[in-house]
Please model this.
Amino acid sequence: MDKNYALSLPLANDFNAYIDAALKSNEISKDEWYELNNFYFTKLYLSTDNPRAQSGHGGDEYHYIFAHLPIIEAVYKNGTFCDVGCANGHLMEMLYKWGAAVGFDLQMYGVDISEGLLELAKKRLPQWHDRFFLGNAFYWKPEHKFDYIHNSADVPVNDKRKYYEHLMENYLADGGRMIVGPYWYENEDTAEKQIIDNVGMPPAGYAIKTHYSKPDMLRKVMWFDKIQG
Model:
């Protein structure tokens, strides 16, 4: 595999497809997959000059709100909330504001594999300086568990089931809620089924709405509850 070529790919989708194929063909190891992913997205996000793009969103403020506001539909009580793959912390910041607007007190935390993005997050949100953690979410374990977790991180395709199990077991408190998405889809039998198969259980609930300009496309967020043991 030409790693320099992978890191020069201009579009994230092209990059993801390239390193996924390289991992599948054993051209790179899993450690190299994470290393390349970290380097590419840190460079990509830090090359931009607005908080939305620095967290991985290419649209303006209106499109960002439209795309991410459904996450707050999963919130039903006050509690601790960890964004797994938090990048510059922009989603944490917005969820805190949206939650407060509807009467919930969310204590926000974030973890990310990128040291550069976490440094930016701490500068942007100094009030949460001690609530940002550096680590590979697939292996990292928090010192305390959370009432809510939202997954913004990515892992190799064949590890997604193990990854969700890791999040449920090590990140989520008993009775807590794991939020997946929102994501766009046109065929419910593909995207939704794939997520449910990876998590290994049916969702406890979901929120859904149509695309703002394409009625055939839907935006959906699902959540999965951890039964008290």
User: Anything to note?
Assistant: Residues 30-46 form the longest helix (17 residues). The chain has a mean pLDDT of 92. The beta strands are 79-84, 106-112, 132-134, 146-151, 172-185, 205-210, 218-225.
